[in-house]
Amino acid sequence: MARTRRTPPDPRENPQTFAAYLRERVYATFTGLAIVLVVSGSGHPTAQHAFLALLLGVVGIVVAGFVSELISHLVLHQLMPDKAELQPMLKVAAGGLATVGAPALMLGLAWLGILDLERALNIATWIYVVTLALIGWLAVRRAKLSVPRQLVAYALLIGLGMLVIL
Questions:
Q1: N or C: which end of the chain has fewer CB within 10 A?
Q2: Exposed, middle or buried, 72 (CB in 10 Å: 0-12/13-18/19+)?
Q3: In angstroms, how far apart are the furthest CA atoms of the chain?
């Protein structure tokens, strides 16, 4: 079955690319969550400011991750990546960018006056929390751990995510 560009890397095909994909999503998700929480607690934010801060912040962290991959490749191989090497890097970056979609949509709806900004920020916060929970579940369910140890690992990941919110 042919995969589309939007599907995550198959962990059976290339576990390293899948791990990088999840790692980038974690970075982008924590960045988005931090931005949403800072904007929420900043007094009187505007929807336009919240939307642009979120979009620029997440795009910035994803571009930084992509550039760091290019630099790492250049240092290790002393060459720029070819098409086959660049494709997984782009897939990883696209995964990071995907984390901004639904939260930005909520803030965009607030900017248009369709949704109250405070509600949009709360929804965006919970979208990011659920995203982190799903990423943790994807990682833990593939781990070669007993079920009790998987549950402990998952609880630890969820706890760390909740700590950020607090």
A1: N
A2: exposed
A3: 51
